[in-house]
Amino acid sequence: MKTETKNRTLEIGMCLGIAAVIAAAVLISGCIGGNGGTEPGGGTGTELTGSLTVTGSTTVLPIAQQAADAFMDKHPKVNIQVSGGGSGVGVQAIGTNTADIGMASRELKDEEKTSYPNLVQHVVAGDGIAIIADKNNPVSFLTEEQIKKMYKGEITNWKELGGNDQEIVVVNRDSASGTREFFHEHVMKKEDFTKTALEKNSNGAVKTTVQGTPGAIGYVGLGYVNSDIKAIKIKTPDGYLAEPTVANVLNNKYPIARNLNMFTDGQPTGLAKEYLDFIKSGEGQKIVEDEGFVPVN
User: How many other CB atoms are found less than 10 A from the CB of residue 63?
Assistant: First the structure.
């Protein structure tokens, strides 16, 4: 009787041992198989979901929009809303947490750094500011000093620059524009614009106005230059006639060049980080190049 009881005890123990081994094997298999970890932007692992708002500079906008479209194609459960309004709008939006990412075509102002001390800059592209005229204008180059005098209202007729006897129509950006801020600092040397200038709220509006206005002069980001308007060369102090091109910005031959930025409130995490990493990736920088801007890597 004692032998029978002992044998049954051994059988039960063996069964329990086997069951424990099987359970452990299943547990280990579950840990190392299936949907493992994922690298940022990778095609495996947990699918990205959520929404992102990006707002600000109309210069950076085409990069942000095309990158958003490509990113959402990769991640169908993500929604990214991109809007313009100007660099000032972008900085304020991210500073006051009404957007996830702010776009600016300039550096932060001192007062913005004071008001929003946690903003982190992300350079996503380079750019040159192109001086444009209507495509029938015979003037092919200008010096920065001549451009400055035109925007101050000191040169008012194209014949003073070797062109036709035609009044100069100065087209400027509005006060929220980062492109205007950069132009005011680097070309105008912080001197006042003429009060007769037409102010427009986007690069596209400047381009359209110049395109349809004989005698007009304006300035836009490189990505807005095409055959509809004439891009004026800049004559540098050494006599070089610099065209507003990506190549000339890259080799430091074009004098009116800048960074294009996105800002986050603190170091980016989650979806904002994934999106910014995508823009800085090879695929994202190809979008920058395709849009006519300067890749940063």
Answer: 28
Gap between the Cα atoms of 22 and 20, Å rounded: 5
Query: How much is the pTM?
Result: 0.79
The pLDDT of residue 45 is: 55
Which residue in this structure is represented by tokens 């190392």?
Answer: 32
C-alpha dihedral (107, 242, 201, 156), degrees to nearest 10: 120
**Shortest CA distance to 180 belongs to which of 295, 278, 258?**
258
Do 145 and 240 lie in a common domain? yes
Do residue 121 and residue 264 come from a single domain? yes
Which residues 6+ apart lie within 8 Å of 116 measured at CB?
91, 94, 95, 108, 265
Residue ranges with strand state E in the chain: 50-56, 78-85, 101-104, 119-134, 141-142, 169-173, 198-200, 216-221, 229-235, 241-242, 257-265
Q: Does 131 score more than 70 pLDDT?
A: yes
With 0-12 / 13-18 / 19 or more C-beta atoms within 10 angstroms meaning exposed / middle / buried, residue 224 is: buried
Per the structure, how many domains does the chain have?
Answer: 2
CATH of the domain at 84: 3.40.190.10
Region of residue 214 (left: phi > 0; alpha: psi -120 to 50; beta: else): beta
| Residues 24, 22: Cα–Cα separation, whole Å | 5
